[in-house]
Design brief:
The protein is α/β, with parallel strands linked by helices and 262 residues long. The chain has a single domain, classed as Aldolase class I (TIM Barrel, Alpha-Beta Barrel). The protein is built from nine helices and eight strands. It has an eight-stranded mixed beta sheet with strand order 3-1-2-4-5-6-7-8. Helix 2 crosses helix 3 and helix 3 packs parallel to helix 4. The protein is globular and about 50 Å long. 40% of the residues are buried. The chain binds iron/sulfur cluster (SF4).
Length: 262
Amino acid sequence: MLAVQAETSLSTQPVTGYVHSIETFGAVDGPGTRFVAFLQGCRMRCEFCHNPDTWNTGVGTEVTPDELLAQAVKYKAFWGKKGGITVSGGESLLQIDFILELFKKAKAQGINTCLDTCGQPFSYKEPFFSKFKELMQYTDVSLVDIKHIDPYEHKRLTGWTNENILSMIQYMSDNGHHMWIRHVLVPERTDYDDYLAQLGAYIKTIKTVDKVEVLPYHTMGVSKYDELGFNYPLEGIEPPIAERVANAERLLDTSAYTGYKN
Ligand code: SF4
């Protein structure tokens, strides 16, 4: 009897998530105006990361899906037809149980849901894959970063290869899940015509891309490295000039992706 009680109380424990920060009027993380929750935790170590303070797991503000949703819906009047809730990071998929519950509850209220992910935790292994498959049923659009198209360069830039990230994108393409693809343009790392052309050709093979964005590398996160006592890996590398950004946009054919389903 005691064992049964213990099991019951365990199963009724609410799933909680760890939130790094909130943006109440996000304009760039998905369609329309959005409530953006940046979750804590990331295993990648992108050299250009401007949020190294999101890397640690198990810290931040602990919330239940109901608590976060209650906070978000206060801003519902500002969302219009396109806006809604975005979950970002850090790496959001490290807290997939939490997002699944949050998005289920959000969709039950007719709220538009957007998942911002770098895809690193993606795996066909269980239990992750079943959860991901279910999460996709409650996700209107995903923002997916491709850090580098070349597996070797990807590892050099982030500490991980891009194999499972591309598998996730393929799964989403094959199953009709819409996405925006984003690529950070970093001089001396990703800003090479060959790699950009390769990435552009790859994106053309994905069926469910609504939008492609080139994000110019910036140095706004440098002070956080100083505060955390970390060396800044891209010391001396300046943001790309406008011509290189335009060149990347041409090679990724960003203008061909003219909108998004919503
Ligand atoms: S995936 Fe995002 S949060 Fe993680 S290191 Fe890279 S840029 Fe930073």
